[in-house]
Design goal:
The protein is of the alpha/beta class and 335 residues long. The chain has two domains: 91 residues, Aspartate/ornithine carbamoyltransferase (Rossmann fold), CATH 3.40.50.1370; 150 residues, Aspartate/ornithine carbamoyltransferase (Rossmann fold, 3-Layer(aba) Sandwich). Helices cover 34% and strands 16% of the residues. The strands form four sheets. It has a five-stranded parallel beta sheet with strand order 9-8-7-10-12, with helices on one face. Strands 4-3-5-6 form a four-stranded parallel beta sheet, with helices on both faces.
Length: 335
């Protein structure tokens, strides 16, 4: 059900007021997996809200009085920074540990229920959790101390998937019927999340060109059961039919150098590569540069920074949905 969020704040000079937003309760208290975000919610609520947010310059403190804690047990640049910026742009307060594994007593996720209960007792409104430890997201959800967003687990990254879907939507005009080529580290959470997100659309084909790893049998089964065709390819020439190329680079600079020394997909994004692609094909990359793919050309089809801007907007919209409207409620969540 769509719920109109209203306050006394007015819209003026490009400032967005809460009363202008039609926020539908997302149907979940915690965002732990990409599968939770239905296509109906994405297209009827999330994407329109993102479009609205993109058109505004300031946001009239929509999340004033709200606080978000970023509990990251692994390094993060883009995810944490964009979430923190999203919180601040909306008028909320962002807090974090640089690396939660280094801070006693939260160095281990084995007591995640206790950690989240402490955050709730300190009146935090939401936590964003990153950890690849098995079962930690399920434990955080079961603790139910406060709403939690999965900021990156071993095999999922829901807000990254939503950002990538929004980028495809904006760049291609739609996702149904598209061909996406995924290049690089196929076992990574970004790829798993994207594939699960694409499974919500029709007639999607995915070309898989690895530099390392492979898509898990579970993800293959999930996608296959929903009509997504996953096709393994072994040559860069196969990317010529793609509508979008999704680069997912090696874990570290050292990893990139090792792959290059073995001549494992030494991909150069140069004029020759871009001329091979279809005129409308966009090239995406969810990671900051780390010595992975050589980018030697300037081309409007390189969507890297539009993609990171979209990630900011998507995370703003997710925060608004989870903090402005309580799932199952009949009104606004006390803003």
């Amino acid at each position: 059900m769509t719920q109109t969020v209203r306050t006394d704040a007015a819209s003026r000079n490009g400032v967005i007021a809460i009363r202008e937003l039609d926020l539908a309760a997302p149907g979940f208290r915690h965002l732990m997996s990409t599968e939770q975000a239905s296509r109906e919610w994405i297209e009827s609520n999330l994407f329109p809200l993102c479009d609205d947010l993109r058109s505004r310059r300031t946001y009239d403190n929509l999340l004033r009085g709200r606080s978000v804690y970023f509990l990251f047990y692994e390094p993060s640049f883009l995810t944490r920074t964009s979430f923190e910026r999203a919180t601040e742009l909306l008028g909320g307060q962002a807090y974090h540990t640089e690396d939660a594994s280094q801070f006693f007593p939260i160095h281990s996720v084995s007591q995640i229920d206790n950690i989240l209960s402490i955050l709730a007792s300190l009146r935090f409104d939401l936590a964003v959790l990153r950890s690849s430890e098995s079962g930690v997201m399920q434990d955080a959800e079961q603790a139910n101390a406060l709403p939690v967003i999965n900021g990156g687990s071993a095999d999922d990254h829901p807000t990254q998937a939503l950002a990538d879907l929004y980028t495809l939507h904006r760049e291609l005009g739609g996702i149904d019927g598209c061909t996406v080529a995924v290049v690089g580290r196929l076992e990574h959470r970004n790829v798993s999340a994207l594939l699960k997100g694409l499974a919500g659309y029709e007639n999607v084909k995915v070309l898989l060109l690895p530099s390392s790893g492979k898509v898990s049998p579970e993800i293959r089964s999930y996608c296959g059961g929903r009509g997504v065709r996953l096709i393994d390819v072994d040559a860069i020439d196969a990317l010529a039919e793609a509508d979008a190329v999704y680069l997912n680079g090696p874990r570290t600079v050292a990893h990139a150098q090792l792959l290059k020394s073995r001549n494992s997909l030494n991909l150069r994004i140069d004029e020759s590569f871009m001329s091979m692609l279809r005129p409308h094909c966009v090239v995406m990359d969810p990671m900051q540069r780390s010595g992975d793919f050589e980018v030697e050309v300037t081309d409007s089809r390189l969507a890297f920074y539009r993609q990171s801007a979209n990630a900011l907007t998507v995370r703003m919209a997710v925060l608004l949905n989870m903090l402005a409207v309580e799932p199952g409620s009949n009104g606004v969540n006390n803003i």
